[in-house]
Amino acid sequence: MDSTGVKANINVQVNDQSVTTAVPTLEVKPPPEVDIPHLPPDKIVDNQLSPEIGKPKEEANVPDLSKPQNISTLKPIYTVDKGGVAITIDDGPTRYTKELLKVLRENDAKVTFFFLGQNAASYPQSVTEAVYDGNEIGYHSNSHPKMTNMTYNEQKSEYELGLKRLQKLVAKPIRLFRPPYGAYNNDTKLVTEEYKMKMILWNEDPQDWSTTNSAEVVKHVLAQVQSGGIIVMHDHPSTIAALPDIIKGIKSKGMKLVTIPSD
């Protein structure tokens, strides 16, 4: 049967006799067209990492019987000294970091960056520029995994890979580490201790990633900022646009902008 459904005649030999018979065949139709949804270019998000949310707390280890079950004595840091406020910027460097640095220079302010190793390898000049401007440089893993889903050895491999990439661009030893999502467990603390680093978390989360409205970012930050605060923010355009008013607002409240000491 052809594409119109007509049966085909087939000639076969049976006991040396020629027999012609009609054999139906299956009709073959082209597959239906499928409309595959896609995002228009202006809706594609540049940085699709999931954000840090809320106040971090220690989680359980992933079982791993191949290593000693040591208990870490490391205490994560959530605050700076009274009278100061530390703005911290996660997930960079990105294509926006140069503009962020420009805004900081114009407002005579310095922040603590927590850079990703893979991003540092892609935007090395932004890292060196941040160092030159006097900002503090911290480490935020290589590729932003949730480390509490990893074994000790997996965490150590992730830690080492990105730290090597970032340290190549920073002259002094990097001593500050922030786990992605603020997610950590005893293994994360053990690895951090092994590299002689501090674990830096936060006590103020304005969720700057949740809006593209810079005025909303300013409002959220200034509504909760207090003496000794460590504010977690991200390398996003709306955050960068909000920084001048955030910096002015913090200073107007009588608090000093500080970086997190690495010593």
Describe the protein's architecture and organization.
By secondary structure, this protein is an alpha/beta fold. 29% of the residues lie in helices and 17% in strands. It has seven helices and eleven strands. The chain has helices at 97-106, 117-122, 124-132, 152-167, 186-194, 214-224, 237-252; strands at residues 8-14, 17-23, 58-59, 84-92, 112-115, 136-139, 176-177, 184-185, 198-199, 230-234, 256-257. Strands 4, 5, 6, 10 and 11 form a five-stranded parallel sheet that branches. Strand 1 (8-14) and strand 2 (17-23) form a beta hairpin. Helix 1 (97-106) runs parallel beside helix 7 (237-252), helix 4 crosses helix 5 (186-194) and helix 6 packs parallel to helix 7 (237-252). The longest helix has 16 residues, at 152-167. It is globular and about 55 Å long. The N and C termini lie far apart (83 Å). The relative contact order is 0.19. Residues 1-8 and 25-48 have low confidence and may be disordered.
